[in-house]
Amino acid sequence: MAGEVRHSPHGAQDRAMTTTENECPFCDRIAMRHDLLGANSLCVAFCDTKPLNPGHVLIVPYRHEPDFLALLPEERNAILRMAAELRSQLDEEYRPDGFNLGVNVGRAAGQTIGHAHLHLIPRHWGDVPDPRGGIRCLIPEPTRYRPVGERGDQR
Q1: Fewer CB within 10 Å, N- or C-terminus of the chain?
Q2: What string of pLDDT tens digits covers the 155 residues of the chain?
Q3: Strand ordering across the sheet containing 118-123
Q4: CA–CA separation, 60 vs 55, rounded Å?
Q5: Catalytic site residue 117?
Q6: CATH number at residue 59
Q7: Against a cut of 0.70, is the pTM above it?
Q8: What angle do CA 148, 91, 121 make, to 5 degrees?
Q9: Range of the domain at 62
Q10: Which one of the listed residues 56, 115, 117, 119 is annotated catalytic?
């Protein structure tokens, strides 16, 4: 039924991926320590191997935790600080018009790697026909914006 919310029969266990540290591609990249764009005491940043746009970066905590919302406050803060620091680097290299920051928690939200991470995605006018709504467009039906030019348009 349209609009019906379905819950996993596995509950909270199904919200996170089952990737272990031994089979985690992010843990492998952290251990190799090459291709890092930034690092601090709690997290690292590297380019996404399947970027949505040039300059698409992943910021990943060292600690293997599948659920971003279960990270320690210090880890989340370090990740956000890293995003702010990388912004100037990405501004200089890619000259974006904006950024999307995104987190997927659980398979139902689109998480494919069971290690928490933040996407930092440079955006440019014209990279999509109509960027209004940003992440709201993941579920297109509820996104109903006024036509361009009507009162309230922020363009």
Answers
A1: N
A2: 344 433 343 444 444 455 777 899 999 999 998 899 999 999 999 999 999 999 999 999 999 999 999 999 999 999 999 999 999 999 999 999 999 999 999 999 999 999 999 999 999 999 888 888 887 775 555 545 456 555 544 44
A3: 36-39, 43-47, 57-61, 118-123, 98-102
A4: 16
A5: yes
A6: 3.30.428.10
A7: yes
A8: 65
A9: 18-127
A10: 117
